[in-house]
Design brief:
The chain is an alpha+beta fold. The chain is 13% helix and 27% strand. The protein contains one helix and four strands. It has one helix at residues 15-24; strands spanning 2-5, 32-37, 45-50, 63-67.
Length: 79
Amino acid sequence: MLAIYNPRSKTRPHGLQRALQLLLEHRPAATPVGIVRRAMRDGQWRQVTTLGQVPVEEVDMQSVLIVGNSRTYLWGDGW
């Protein structure tokens, strides 16, 4: 698994997109990705998605992405 912390800011808005492009060269688009923004604070937001469907515009400096590996799978309701 891979954690990406503070992946996107106003001064570097394209870094996350580039990281996703690099990951997609080595991992399937269906690889699970968990996203949490503002963890343990007011306004916390979370989503489970796939590497090919990461909502880049929803991700900011207060976010962390957890990218699954070849053995990662979703179980139950996805959490």
